[in-house]
Design goal:
This protein is of the alpha+beta class and 649 residues long. It folds into five domains: 2-75, no CATH class; 107-224, Pleckstrin-homology domain (PH domain)/Phosphotyrosine-binding domain (PTB) (PH-domain like, Roll); 271-358, PH-domain like (Roll), CATH 2.30.29.30; 379-541, Orthogonal Bundle (Helicase, Ruva Protein, domain 3); 551-648, no CATH class. The strands form three sheets. It has an eight-stranded antiparallel β-sheet. A seven-stranded antiparallel β-sheet has the order 7-6-5-4-10-9-8, sandwiched between helices. The relative contact order is 0.05.
Length: 649
């Protein structure tokens, strides 16, 4: 039907049939329509696709034109084209045999792969193979079809085609960059940068899954290198010999689940159900996924409405099935509220899971000590301070009260686009502490650990360590111009919170910038709330920021440099050394702009941070550079640029 001179080989939902060294003969499957590959200097025709009907073969042809044809223009010779096609065919043969994604449930295939892995790469006997995939490794413009092996400490590739052997061994801790990319030649691939050398892997039928596992293994390797204690606390990582593909996948899903919903690190994703949720304020059903853990029922929409809700099991009082016909269930929570889910495929299982957990996580009420029940520090001096923005504050409060009446208030509130819009406009001071606790997830930490802070305060009272010495030194440097910290009341509260946290987490203890952050938290939150907000920031929202190495901040600075290259190319052209911005932005990241902005503006940044995380700080940093781009470009040296940025912020 068609003779194609320059086309690739593909496999789309089992319709395209690839084969190697197949010449048109009587032994081939007979089909009235075929797509063939042929080059002018060859007498061989390659069967690329076949179809029973004209419509079927036209469908294949259209897909080839739209997806593949543009790639082949980069090849200079017919040999390269043929080699490329052969590589594709070999890969598709492997995929046809369903060997590209090897499941751990198939011990025979995994054992064979393990023997090949040990034979080809001769790594230490204790090296644990996690999984392997069929893929192409690109050397120049021509791919080598082979196998990618992922182990606990190495990523390896092996190929043997037409007498040419390609062997690659890369240690995870040597990788400089790991990312998914696409270009003219490769529609989608994984890019690995090692010591300035680029490596590209493509033809992965499960590219996203492969990338997640590679990312985890690389991340774990660095954690083992820098932080053995934290690594050993991870159940999935404590014994490298027990790391499995299934365990990595489950750990990645749970980590993503906890990060998105801001849940405690003890929570693991147990069940996922696709369903519709009735959104009362919009009067429609939104499609999304129900995510269930030991202590939380969460929902996130998938249809672009940006709606999600978090329900602690301690708030659930009943689960009802109003109508079994549409596979629906209603979750009743405290405050006379109910969430109505419909079209849940396994609604009976979900209902039973919720019922079995809703009574477990309920926490008894705890009467905190007088130390921990103190009002937020700002209320102690606010009576003496006449707020010039009183009218504006009342307008903000009114907007938020309307929002609460429509979307709910407290832990079961709906998070929507309107929530973010209100945060950008400004959070009223009277609600700031409450909303910080809610957005950060600290409200759940405090509710599930009654009396914990009081006990820490008592246990840490009178202790003398290097951390407490550093805390005493920095107490009077924390917002010294603010009235709240010009008396012993504010200083004592700050001392208790910082000392209690140092006692809780001796690995971090106390780090500079923690005093500045905590002092701002105390302005708008009660003492115990400020403690749990500090826990949320240090251990969940900004991990590895507040330690001796500040690895987390350094990583985000590298991300910041990449964002500058991507979004501010004009600045990059005129200032080739971007490390300057890293040194300037370090205080931005560590103190969330508190140390460089007036307190009235800084708290608005903290509002956005607690809702959007570090993304808000990165966006603000880019905005600062973009606004001052003209002045920065005209600078003669770094000192002048520092002066410009300091004057601006």
């Amino acid at each position: 039907f068609y003779v194609v001179k320059n086309i690739n080989v593909l496999y789309v939902t089992g319709l395209l049939v690839g084969t190697l060294d197949t010449v048109l003969d009587s032994t081939s499957k007979v089909a009235p329509y075929r797509i063939l590959h042929h080059t002018p200097d060859s007498q061989v025709y390659w069967s690329i696709a076949c179809g029973v009907t004209k419509e079927e073969i036209v469908q294949h042809w259209d897909w080839l034109q739209q997806t593949i044809m543009r790639t082949l223009s980069v090849f200079d010779s017919s040999e390269d084209i043929t080699s490329f096609v052969q590589g594709k065919i070999r890969g598709l043969i492997a995929e046809e045999g369903k060997t590209s994604l090897v499941l751990e449930e198939d011990p025979e295939k995994f054992r064979e792969a393990l023997l090949r892995f040990e034979k080809w790469f001769e790594l230490p006997p204790k090296e644990k193979l996690v999984t392997y995939y069929s893929c192409s490794y690109w050397k120049g413009k021509v791919p080598c079809q082979g196998w990618l092996y992922l182990s606990t400490n190495f990523m390896c590739f092996y190929s043997y085609l037409l007498g040419a052997e390609v062997k690659l061994i890369i240690s995870w801790d040597e990788i400089w960059r790991l990312e998914k990319t696409s270009n003219v030649i490769l529609t989608e691939s994984i890019h690995v940068l090692v010591h300035g050398e680029d490596h590209y892997f493509s033809m992965l039928m499960h590219l996203n899954e492969t990338f997640v596992i590679m990312e985890q293994l690389a991340d774990y390797s660095i954690k083992r290198l820098f932080d053995k204690e934290a690594f050993q606390r991870e159940p999935a990582l404590s014994d490298p010999l027990q790391i499995t593909k299934r365990g990595l996948e489950a750990h990645a899903k749970s980590e993503q689940f906890r990060t998105f919903f801001r849940l405690p690190k003890e929570e693991n994703l147990l069940e996922v159900h696709e369903s519709f949720l009735w959104v009362p304020f919009s009067h429609f059903n939104t499609l999304g996924k129900i995510c269930l853990s030991e202590s939380y029922l969460c929902f996130a929409s998938q249809d672009g409405s940006q709606c999600h809700v978090i329900i602690p099991m301690r708030e659930v009082i009943n689960v009802e099935k109003p109508d079994s016909g549409n596979r629906a269930l209603t979750v009743c929570v405290r405050g006379k509220r109910a969430l109505r889910f419909s079209e849940v495929r396994d609604y009976q299982r979900l209902a039973n899971s919720i019922r079995s957990r809703c009574g477990i996580s309920a926490s008894p009420q705890h009467s905190a000590s007088s130390q921990c029940c103190r009002a937020c520090t700002i209320t102690l001096w606010c009576v003496l301070f006449v707020c010039v923005w009183q009218l504006k504050e009342k307008m903000k409060e009114q907007s938020w009260n309307i929002h609460f009446s429509e979307y709910g208030r407290g832990t079961s509130m709906f998070f929507t686009r309107k929530t973010r819009d209100l945060i950008v406009r400004g959070v009223p001071e009277a609600l700031r502490g409450e909303l910080w606790m809610l957005f950060s997830g600290a409200v759940n930490d405090m509710a599930t650990h009654p009396g914990y802070y009081s006990d820490l305060v008592e246990q840490s009272l009178g202790t003398s360590t290097l951390a407490t010495d550093e805390i005493e030194r920095d107490l009077h440097r924390s917002l010294p111009e603010h009235p709240a910290f010009q008396s012993d009341t504010g200083i004592s509260a700050l001392r208790r919170v910082l000392t209690a946290y140092a006692y809780r987490n001796p690995k971090i203890g106390y780090c500079q910038a923690m005093n500045i952050l905590t002092s701002v938290l105390l302005l708008y939150a009660k003492e115990e709330e400020a403690f749990w907000l500090l826990v949320a920031v240090c251990e969940r929202m900004l991990p590895d920021y507040f330690n001796r190495r500040i690895i987390g901040a350094l990583v985000d600075q590298a991300v910041f440099e990449d964002l500058i290259r991507e979004h501010l190319p004009q600045l990059v052209e005129n200032m080739t050394d971007l490390s300057f911005f890293s040194s300037v932005s370090l205080s931005w990241f560590l103190t969330l702009f508190i140390s460089v902005l007036p307190i009235e503006s800084a708290v608005n940044v903290v509002d956005c941070f607690f809702y959007d995380g570090i993304k808000a700080i990165l966006q603000l940093g880019l905005a600062v550079l973009d606004y001052n781009m003209g002045a920065l470009i005209s600078c003669h040296d770094d000192a002048e640029a520092v002066t410009i940025l300091n004057k601006f912020v």
